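Example 352, ligand flavin-adenine dinucleotide.
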Amino acid sequence: MNIAIIGAGASGLFLANLLEKLNINYTLFNKGKVGSKILASGNGRCNISNTHISGDKYHNNKLAISIINNNKNDLFKFFDEFKIYLKEDSEGRLYPISESSESILNILTKNIKNIVDLEITKIIKMNDYYKVNDYDDKFSHVVISTGSPSGMKNPKSLDLFKSLNINLNEFKPSLVGFKIKEKIKEISGVRCKAKVSLINDNKLIHEESGEIIFKDDGISGICVMNLSSYYNYLDNKNNTKIIIKLLDKEYDNYESVINPKLLKFINKNKLNYQKLEFNILNTYSLEFSQVSKGGVDIKLVNENLTLKNDNHIFITGEVLDVDGLCGGYNLSFAFMSAIEVYKEIKNEISNR
Ligand SMILES: Cc1cc2nc3c(=O)[nH]c(=O)nc-3n(C[C@H](O)[C@H](O)[C@H](O)COP(=O)(O)OP(=O)(O)OC[C@H]3O[C@@H](n4cnc5c(N)ncnc54)[C@H](O)[C@@H]3O)c2cc1C
């Protein structure tokens, strides 16, 4: 057995560590910096998982549900085995005790022996093995762990999917802020706590509370980013609004209650403190998003993450068309999908 893993991000690195345990030959191909999204995650603190993992935290979640059911317990078992010790915040988000993404990347890379800096654009099936690009080795299995274009200035080539005749579902930015129609430059930079609601054609789609951040031409913050993942699944995005409820009760004076810049803006525009309405033009682009909707359609893969038309090619992580909410759910999905592949490979060995 000789396995090509394409992509040394969260899922590729986790899988390589698990294959080390089985003593299996593998080569990890990665163009550019290894694990760059792990480093960027959680603002450098790495929100690695969440105590509330469940299928309802994911969109397009049929596959996520089976991956969670099969692998959630093992995820925490392997965190322990890799000596990744975690702490929990009040909302169940899990971080390394160091609060440093770098420490997670160090742990996941320290035992990896075989990383090749190469952008894979072609996977070729020969009789009973695979070649990637013109690389010399022959591989018995290929694992595609290439992630999504989210958060990247220069996304990698998607040509390898063409070489396998896979049409990807279009990548769309998720976990990202909204551009809005109203002019709000004067409150750019203001942060405050609020309840935010996504309204489409006068229907409530989703609501959450948390910190919001006003930008030059839009609104962001974790709770707003979560709304964006529901926005992606709307059939008709026209007439979609974000409604912000700043306060739970009324006051006789708001000077010490609301940020002065925001208060001035509200008064000038005669807005309602309990219901600030903004019309959504779009989300910000993929480059500014944390994850993507889109990628390999889940109809093309089995529950064990092999392609339906080729059971020696696996797909892991975010390149699958499954996207989770903010809170550690996306890294967890990437890791759990790697565990699924590890178990399949382990089974294959023991059945030989
Ligand atoms: C700014 C930011 C913050 C985030 N914060 C969090 C967080 O706190 N918690 C959370 O759960 N999730 C977070 N995420 C999302 C999370 O990082 C991703 O969902 C996760 O990293 C996906 O893992 P992956 O293995 O699928 O892909 P990635 O980690 O993206 O790895 C893919 C790797 O493959 C390489 N690659 C791609 N194509 C090729 C090719 N053709 N040839 C060779 N190499 C290739 C890439 O360069 C990359 O190194 C964040 C994302 C961003 C952008």
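Summary: Helices lie at 10-22, 36-40, 62-81, 101-109, 159-163, 222-231, 260-268, 329-350.
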